[in-house]
Amino acid sequence: GLWQILVRQKLIPAAQADAALAAVLEPFPKSKSMRDLFDAGRGGVLVLLKASGIPSDANVQDKMLDLLAGTATPTDLETHQAVVTEMLRGFEAQRLVSLKTLFDLDDHLNAMARGEKPNTALLNRLAARVSDLNLPKASMSAQERNNLSFGYWTERHLDAQRKMNLRVAVEKAAGQPERLKELRGQLAPLLRDTLVGLLYLHYAPPGAQILYTNPIFVRSHDFIGIQGGQQTWKITEVLGTGWPSSAGGRLVGSLANLPYALAEAEQNFLIPTREQALIWGDLVPQLLVSSKLPRFWNVTPVQARYLSLQMKLGEAVIAESALSAATRNTAMQLLDRFAPPARVRQVSDLLAAGRVADAMELVTPSELYHLGAMAMEARLEAGAPLAAEIRQLAAAAPAQLTPAALSEAFGTPKPTLANSQHPELLNLRTFPTLMGYSSRILAESWESNNLFFASLADDLYMRPSQLNMMLPEWTQRTVEQIFATHLEDWPALLRSMRTVAGGVRAQARKAEAQQQKAALED
Predict the structure, then answer these.
(1) In this predicted model, what pLDDT tens digit does every residue of 309-367 receive, in sequence order?
(2) Across-strand partners of 222?
(3) What distance in Å separates the CA atoms of residue 485 and residue 489, rounded to the nearest whole number?
(4) What does the alpha-carbon distance between residue 418 and residue 15 come to, in Å, rounded to a whole number?
(5) DSSP code of residue 464
(6) Average pLDDT, the chain
(7) 243 phi/psi in degrees, rounded to 5
């Protein structure tokens, strides 16, 4: 999971990706004991850090958090620190043990096994976090829990950590090299929890609550699942929701679908401002994932400006279509490539009647983006100044403004449609509901949110890197303000997005007015 993140964010060069993964996996089949397992885990972490260009003497915990935040050499220090701080808050809430603490303790146990005297102060400082986890005590016996719900091995994992007292174990093993070496195996479950926890924190959706209120949520991840269910290699699922014995639910299976599963578990903690705010059960988790999984550290202001101009050009073409039948015919032919025919006809009828605002309500931001791009190719005259600026940007930075580069910069993950978490734009029509239900395909074909809010950020003269913090926040507010009257009322999502954008623009104008007033008073 960590390797996948670092490769997706291009922190591990593509030429080294396969070799790094092979080096991570190689020791695990050879592991015969808990001590071997810990060594394999530690070695894998060091391989990933080295492949990402991190010096061997660096603080492994700090550098891993920097990498998971998106970059080890941030140009926007303020935004990067905000992302890291948010991850640290979850790390502390889950009471995980830092990689540096585990590795330093491992080194010290090795030194003691070689005959060196124990450094009591160091041992106490490092073991305190391990020994004093103070995990919540179980309210039922192991037999009662297993009769009520699944999770035998997960409960054993938790019970072992509740009973762990590493300081006492080290004192009893003093002077016995082999016993000291074996004690290192007790660190393996803690390392497992920390690595799984780092993945949880990287993918934590906006508005997450379970990660901050259930301190055993990460430790409860069940890789085995229900007995006989063969869930070890299946995608991540949310099971046990509402069961007090499983702390309200846990994630089960592999980590292959972790981003969506986390969002699915957390979505019901969002507080709607209106009725029926979470009417699309599949769409909302996808929106949350799409706002959090992409990282915008490498996106340039030129790309954001180009995107915004293309969407504005699409709006200008639609507005011009109300005045010119020829333009309307051409524009509707272009729009028909990305919108369902029934909606294209509806938009055309509204434009013919001069109802531009109503027609605009039925066109998604992704369709505006594609319409603007195709209008440039078709040489439509609408929005001539916009077209001139678009051509100027394209000539100045052609490599940054290719369809592939823009797709990677502002796309969304599509594990169902593309079998990949890599963000991209597939330029598909938005899928309809099927037999009265939404679906993952419908959710993944919705590509408008990131495009819309990236354009908003450009309008407010924000750095693209600030989207790492603002996009999740704006998406959460959008979800909470959805007010749909029925399952097919998808324009409710557009209305909510525009409401959020209006509020953001009003706040920006207010802040600007206050700054001008303060400047005049000075």
Answers:
(1) 999 999 999 999 999 899 999 999 999 998 889 899 999 999 999 999 999 999 999 99
(2) 252
(3) 6
(4) 22
(5) G
(6) 87
(7) -90, 115
| Cα 458 from Cα 222, distance rounded (Å) | 43
Alpha helices in 322-402 (DSSP H): 325-335, 341-352, 356-360, 365-378, 384-396
pLDDT at 408 exceeding the cut of 70:
yes
Q: In the numeric block, which tokens belong to residue 504?
A: 């953001």
CB 431 within 8 A of CB 455: no
Contact 358, 440 (CB under 8 A): no
Phi-psi region of 228 (alpha: psi -120 to 50; beta: other; left: phi over 0): left
Question: Among 17-26, 152-161, 389-398, 441-450, whose mean pLDDT is lowest?
Answer: 152-161
- C-alpha 223/C-alpha 203 separation (Å) is 18
Cβ–Cβ under 8 Å, residues 180 and 169: no
pLDDT at 183: 85
pLDDT value of position 100: 92
Contact 278, 284 (CB under 8 A): yes
- pLDDT at position 436 is 65
What letter does residue 437 receive in the DSSP assignment? Answer: B
For residue 251, give the nearest of 286, 204, 207 by alpha carbon: 204
CA distances from 36 to 14, 104, 306, 465 (A): 29, 17, 52, 41
CA distance 232 to 225: 7
3-state helix, strand, coil in the chain (%, to 5): 60, 5, 35
Q: Give the integer Cα–Cα distance in Å for 434 and 438.
A: 6
Highest-scoring range by mean pLDDT, 99-113, 268-282, 376-390: 99-113
Q: For residues 369 and 311, is the Cβ–Cβ distance under 8 A?
A: yes
H or E element: which one contains 413? strand 412-414
Give tens-digit pLDDT for 146-160. 545 566 778 788 888
